[in-house]
Design a protein that fits this description.
335 residues; mainly alpha; Rhomboid-like fold; 2 domains; two-stranded antiparallel sheet; Rhomboid_protease_S54; serine-type endopeptidase activity
Length: 335
């Protein structure tokens, strides 16, 4: 896939990759070692470190996701973002994809700081430094796991659940096996991504069910004239759930809403019997009520992923404040 194609298909993924590479180039041009940057240099450029992040610089929870410790670290995360992003961004939408990445990265950094702080309290750990997009990427990978589990298709192809499990497993095992890797960040990012993706999947399934109520259907001996197109949604489609609508499946847009601009198959028309005007009016009124109810239900479910991400954000703020207050209490006791 060329840069132009990637920019068109996944603009946020493209911008994230550009920001990773651009920041690294600026660092190197300013004198930072491309393979072994010093701790001082990493702190200067926004790395995550408990004494700073949990004191007065919480912005490091996000900034560290764009900073990489050496060229190999950048290449590894860059390739992972490229392959995951071009699938996940069209599936979830650019705005939700960006929110997913940032929240997963922040969740991973918070778990890292939480474990570090507990280790300090127990006398078994000491402050460290971390950076990289791994937490956010693991969140995206976990979200794709949920998409595969719910059999969401991308351009007509369903993700392979087994392959995704293997990829995620290798990353976690590698993190435990190799010293110096922030595995807490990986786990925190993955868990955050799982929770957000569950909200995505549940909302999509419920919106799809609500939207299908809008499609006119047979009611006793009275038939509503309807023109139904075959399934052609190639962006996001619950293929497992729509198989039972084999002969009456409407076309949907990316948000799971009925596409009024889709073409119609006139061979599927069913005409009303003659002398049924009264029943027809009653049926139309009933169908209108059902459509309005279904539309309201669809709008409610569209808000769910954003509501879940808002609650997660509030939870992260509380988590940071909790660790921050503990640190202040310990410092006050020492003084």
């Amino acid at each position: 896939m060329t840069i132009q194609q990637l920019l068109k298909t996944a603009p946020v993924t493209t911008l994230l990759l550009i920001s990773f590479i651009g920041l690294f180039i600026i660092q190197v041009l300013s004198g930072v070692d491309a393979n072994n940057p010093s701790t001082e240099e990493l702190l200067k450029w926004g790395a995550n470190a408990l004494p700073y992040t949990m004191d007065s610089e919480p912005w490091r929870l996000a900034s560290s996701a764009f900073l990489h410790i050496g060229l190999m670290h950048l290449l590894f995360n860059g390739f992972a973002m490229y392959f995951f992003g071009q699938i996940a961004e069209p599936m979830f939408g650019s705005a939700k994809f960006l929110a997913l990445f940032l929240l997963a990265a922040i969740g991973g950094n918070l778990l890292n700081n939480h474990i570090t702080w507990q280790g300090i309290l127990d006398g078994t750990g000491q402050p460290g430094i971390s950076a990289g997009a791994s937490g956010g990427i693991m969140g995206i990978g976990a979200a794709l796991l949920i998409a595969a589990l719910f059999k969401i298709s991308v351009n007509g192809m369903v993700l392979n659940l087994k392959s995704l499990i293997i990829i995620m497993g290798i990353n976690l095992v590698y993190g435990f096996a190799v010293p110096g890797i922030d595995n807490a960040g990986h786990i925190g990012g993955a868990v955050t991504g799982l929770v957000i993706a569950l909200a995505f999947a549940l909302a999509y399934r419920q919106r799809l069910a609500a939207t299908l109520q809008i499609v006119p259907s047979r009611d006793g001996d009275i038939y509503q004239t309807t023109y139904i197109n075959s399934p052609v949604n190639r962006d996001t489609d619950f293929s497992a759930d729509t198989s039972r609508f084999e002969n009456d499946n409407p076309r949907f847009d990316n948000d799971g809403n009925f596409d009024n601009n889709s073409s119609f198959n006139h061979d599927s028309a069913v005409n009303l019997p003659v002398n049924s005007h009264a029943n027809h009016a009653s049926l139309n009124h009933s169908k209108l009520d059902e459509q309005q109810t279904a539309t309201k239900s669809t709008l409610i479910w569209q808000v769910l992923p954003w509501l879940v991400m808002l609650l997660i954000s509030i939870g992260f703020i509380w988590w940071w404040q909790d660790i921050h207050q503990q640190i202040l209490l310990v410092l006050a006791a020492i003084e």
